[in-house]
User: Fold Type II secretion system F family protein from Tahibacter amnicola.
Amino acid sequence: MTAAQKGRARAEVSQLQTFVWVGVDKRGSKIKGEYAAKNASMVKAELRRQGINPQSVKTKPKALFGSSGRTISAREIAVFSRQIAVMMTAGVPLVQGFDIIAGGQSNPRMKNMLLAIKTDIEGGSTLYEALGKFPVQFDELYCNLVKAGESAGVLDTVLDTVANYKENIEALKGKIKKALFYPALVIAVAILVSSILLIFVVPQFEAVFANFGAELPAFTQMIVNASKFMTTYWWAALLIAGGTVGGLIMLYKRSKPFSRFMARAVLKLPVIGQILHQSAVARFARTLGVTFRAGVPLVEALDSVAGATGSPVYNEAVKRIREDVAIGHQLQLAMRQVNLFPNMVVQMVAIGEESGALDTMLFKVADFYEQEVNNAVDALSSLLEPFIMVIIGTLVGGMVVGMYLPIFKLASVV
Assistant:
């Protein structure tokens, strides 16, 4: 599907509106509900097709705080994957399954997307083609797995595999975010508390020190100077901090050499680097195992896996592996050449290739490294607690000592 076709598909979905309708069924009972369509006429036609006489069809009023603007999260896609897998396993027709799932959505964008996919399937499109119109929510890997399932006639089994895959990947992402969020939050709070002390508390002490008429200790004078700068130029400090962070983010997104440098630097950090290494290996193994088990050829599977590792370093490594496999090298040999994967992973892949159970071995590797990430995150939390206490104690305690130092000096003179 071309970019223009994808753009038209997204535009069509954005034109869908949610209508609130009231009608009378064949028994004469009044019923009501909601339906997403391009216009009220389509809603009325659908109601009549179901044997309902429409009395009122109105556009649903928008939420007060604009919930219609919510984006579709990866977690919502994971939940949807499990729901449609359960529906298919239970024998519910695909179109009806989409209708049921869409009816339970609280996110209007998610609901409209599912109804648009349902409409495409009703029009004769395959599930793979319908999902392909939403590349942001359903990436190439997801669509390729669905395509393989449809081609082999085992769509229900593949959807169950996809659901397991999405749930495992989202759980792994959650662990990584937990590992990175906690120290970042504490450091941010420490900086905020220090700024408040410099702007509001230190000036009060400065007024007292002015009455002493004596020269302040060097450490105290340094804190007073910092307080004067923060009080006068706090806006400049905010602009510099915000500009630096924003500039680094833009540079990371737009410059491949910089993003590669940052990715390699982060991977070399003592504990966090190890967690990111293990998570990338786990995602590589699980993604490749899922695609290979679904019947996707190895070279094509590696194409999809490259973007699923979550690391520019591993992304490049997987692309090199794909090139080597494409010219006839064994997977384990290609993995050994990039010198990035642990020896245990390479050996497990070699055993899998020799025994014809590559997918099983890859799942075992993924399970092992996901558990390692779990353990590392717990260990990181325990390790960071004393380290964070030292940081907060140094910042806040240092300022308190600096402010009371002249008072201690004056008391010793008296």
About this structure: The longest helix spans residues 155-210. Residues 9-14, 64-69 have pLDDT under 50 and may be disordered. Residues 161 and 324 are 28 Å apart (CA to CA). The first strand starts at residue 17 and ends at 24.
